[in-house]
Amino acid sequence: MSLEKLAAELSADPLARGYSSMSDQSVSDDLQSEYRTENKSIESSELLAWSAADGRLTRLQIAADDTAHPAHAIASAACLLISRDDTALDLAKPDRVEFLHALVAASVLTDLDRDSLVALSIEPVSRAAELGLGRCRPGEIAMAKSI
């Protein structure tokens, strides 16, 4: 735990949580609550399960097999990603998001398909975890306030 990093968070209050008016216990509770989100990589087993629903894998394979299809290359890559073990899709990378949007634009996937895949990548986290602070106890809050 970095008391300096915690002190900076408490004094700047960048998310306007109102730390200055909270008790040390309330600040601790707030920092530990999971109201933030982070993108996590979607593992190949999750991708395979996702692709099995609603004919997604079939639509990707049809586009991948059709060399004249506008999304042929992206659909081919998607099929490889889904079928390989120990791979992951990281939607925090802008080019991966662009590929996903291209598959939707080419009508290989639907908006609902895209949204369900994005939902798989979203993980709730606490502000403390987001900042790399670990568990913030009331005593540590009090010490950080005094810095």
Structural class comes to mainly alpha
Tally of DSSP β-strands: 4
Globular, elongated, flat, extended or rod-shaped: what is the shape? Answer: elongated
Q: What is the averaged pLDDT score?
A: 95
The major pleated sheet works out as: 2 strands, antiparallel
Number of helices: 9
Strand content: 5-15%
What would you say this structure looks like, in words?
It is a single chain. By secondary structure, this protein is mainly alpha-helical. The chain has two domains: 3-35 and 127-145, no CATH class; 39-124, no CATH class. It has helices at residues 3-12, 24-32, 44-52, 56-65, 72-83, 94-105, 111-121, 127-131, 138-145; strands spanning 36-39, 42-43, 88-89, 122-125. A two-stranded antiparallel ribbon has the order 1-4. A two-stranded antiparallel sheet has the order 2-3. It is elongated, with a radius of gyration of 21 Å. The chain starts with a helix and ends with a helix.
